[in-house]
Amino acid sequence: MIEIIIVIILAYLLGSIPSALIVGKVGYGIDIREHGSGNLGGTNTFRTLGVKAGLIVTIADILKGTVATALPIIFAADVHPLLVGSFAVVGHVYPIFAKFKGGKAVATSGGVLLFYSPLLFVIMLACFFLCLYLTKYVSLSSMITAVVATLYSLFQGDGALIIVVSILSAFVIFKHRANIKRIANKTEPKIKWL
Questions:
Q1: d(CA 180, CA 82)
Q2: Closest to 169 in 3D by CA, of 155, 185, 186, 152
Q3: Which of 21, 89, 97, 98 is the most exposed place for a label (fewest CB within 10 A)?
Q4: Dihedral of CA 141/143/147/150: which sign?
Q5: For 189, left (φ over 0), alpha (ψ -120 to 50), or beta?
Q6: Dihedrals φ, ψ of 30, to 5°?
Q7: pLDDT tens digits for 80-129?
Q8: Nearest to residue 146, comparing CAs of 77, 97, 89, 64?
Q9: Residues 153-161: what's their mean pLDDT?
Q10: Radius of gyration of the chain (CA)
Q11: Contact criterion met (CB below 8 Å) for 42 and 30
């Protein structure tokens, strides 16, 4: 039981590491929460600090989920990896190290699935970039990818995967509710590099 508690706490703390805040302050001397959307995620980092910083933050946020999901194996804890990985997502969205205001769960959720189902991760990546190419909206691409991931999990028939992916997808869409309004009002920013 103690191993389960330890890995859950570690997963949350891993998820709570504010990659965008660290990269912004250490590399650029700015608090990214005071720029752009104020969000501690890869998209705001790309828009505010550029491609290099955005890639670093996105990869770091993905790896938080991947490492957290691996913790039950590392510590030989009798708990499902997806459950533990989900706590990293909670940490990313509500980070204890950044006043509980973090990102929107996309990259870290992807990292959880990268460990548990690499094929699903590849499908999600392809879906995201295809949608991004067609719509130019990062937020819409993220939400469509979440729906596709849920449909994939249903076809896989893995009960734990279905439950966790459905919850994570709902979480992603919930965190993008302001973006949905901006898309409807045609005020959501579009990317210009693709």
A1: 28
A2: 152
A3: 97
A4: positive
A5: beta
A6: -130, 155
A7: 999 999 999 999 999 999 999 999 999 999 999 999 999 999 999 999 99
A8: 89
A9: 93
A10: 16
A11: no
Q: Helix/strand/coil (H, E, C) string of the chain?
A: CHHHHHHHHHHHHHHHCCHHHHHHHHHHCCCHHHCCCCCCCHHHHHHHHCHHHHHHHHHHHHHHHHHHHHHHHHCCCCCCHHHHHHHHHHHHHCCHHHCCCCCCCHHHHHHHHHHHCHHHHHHHHHHHHHHHHHHCCHHHHHHHHHHHHHHHHHHHCCHHHHHHHHHHHHHHHHHCHHHHHHHHCCCCCCCCCC
Token pair of 131 as six digits: 């949608």
Q: Is the pLDDT of residue 15 over 90?
A: yes
Question: Which pair of tokens denotes residue 19?
Answer: 């990659």
pTM beyond 0.90: the answer is yes
